[in-house]
Amino acid sequence: MSWTRTMRLLALALMTLAFLGVAAPAQAGDVSAEETATECALVKPTDDDTISILGRICDRRERPPIAVPDVTVTVEDSEGNEIGEATSAADGTFVVDLPGAAIEHLGKSYTVILDESTLPEGTKPEITSRTININIDNDQTVIFPVGDAGPSAPGKFTEALQLAVGGLVFSVLLAMAALGLSMIFGTTGLTNFAHGELITFGALAAFFIDRLPGQIEVGGADITVILGVLSAFVLGGVFGWLNDTALWRPLRRRGTGLVAMMIVSIGLSLFLRNVYQYFAGAQQRNYSQYGAVEPWEIGDILLTPKELIVIVLGLAVLVAATSLLQFTRLGKATRAVADNPGLAASTGINVERVINIVWIGGAALAGLAGALLGVTQGFDFQVGFRILLLVFAAVVLGGLGTIWGAILGAFVIGLFTELSTLYIDPEFKFVGALVLLIVILLIRPQGLLGRAQRIG
């Protein structure tokens, strides 16, 4: 009896050991599988003179989303020619460098295509291709979420909404720059071709603040770039004051004609552009923060937090500036000087003081626009020069010298420029905006909000 009991105990012990021997490796295998599932990472921006397409492939059915490695991605131009290929790394990221100089790709569109056959078994992408438009020589980011099956490509409506997001961001920045130019033109009559360099000055001022040794922290949060943007606004105003005090006021006192002053502004533009290139170099620049920010996915539409902040901040600045011009004594004096400087002076208004303040405010708006443009898209020493024609188009379209006209013109130009790529080649989108300007001016020569004037 005791022998039988002993044998039963021995058999039970052997069964227990056998179970543990089988279960332990299985558990270890489970842990290993969990360890190999890498969380989807943000793509690090490149720091070179080329434009790169940065992307990541994430399985968002998991929380947090996990990376999908070893997936082949190709990039094609608008004619269907393959110009680059990459394979997603262990963290789900990939980088495709566009060949050639960055300026060669401006205004062009490229399609990033996901090879479904290289996806892990049992997975399917929500979207297999994304088309991106190169608006400025900065790296572009795309995301391919893997999850439930969806449409192979976004519809026109979805694509239009995505383009409208980018158009709205660009319109706000364009409106700030255009408002500054319109204010200066309204009070002085000067067509300032160096206004683009005021925009670039803001981007560079924020950049050099960002590159100071160490970090500027408040409550443990790094606010270096935020302080840089605010400094660009202040320093831009100081730079505008210096422009007027050292150059434009002496020319006005000597009675220099507006055509001669316009030619001087062209020379100033060339001079400042070369100075910027000497100190900042010719390569593409990005700020230390917000270079690769994870976007919010609203369906197939991507919206980054920095884009939302730029829209809200830009609209707030525009409301504050227009309210200042509309309802304060300074604003009334500015409008009086713009209407008739001689009559304004006879009523006791210090015309030179008003013009100097307008230069400070207009340059500050341009500097803030340049800094925020650098936050959203990066910049180089010619960023202001590239959008100068669009700034002029916005001012002329809205009505020369009008406050609200410059803002309205900027939004029309900015949104039309982006949305027009639904039907025309992105290389011609700026041309389309200028054609729109010509058509409207043929119908309404004074601009959308300008006042018709009788000549002769």
TrEMBL record:
Q: What is its main location?
A: membrane
The record's listing under Pfam families reads: BPD_transp_2 (PF02653)
Tell whether Transport is among the UniProt keywords: yes
Q: Which residues form the signal peptide?
A: 1-28
Q: Tell where it localizes.
A: Cell membrane
Q: Which UniProt keywords apply?
A: Amino-acid transport, Cell membrane, Membrane, Signal, Transmembrane, Transmembrane helix, Transport
The way this protein sits in the membrane is described as: Multi-pass membrane protein
Domain of life of the organism in this record? Answer: Bacteria
Q: What InterPro entries does this protein's entry cite?
A: ABC_transp_permease, BCAA_transport_permease
**Entry's transmembrane regions:** 163-185, 192-209, 221-243, 255-276, 308-327, 354-375, 387-416, 428-447
CDD domains recorded = TM_PBP1_LivH_like
Q: Which family does it belong to?
A: Belongs to the binding-protein-dependent transport system permease family. LivHM subfamily.
Q: What's the name of the protein?
A: Branched-chain amino acid ABC transporter permease
Taxonomic lineage of this organism? Answer: Bacteria, Bacillati, Actinomycetota, Actinomycetes, Propionibacteriales
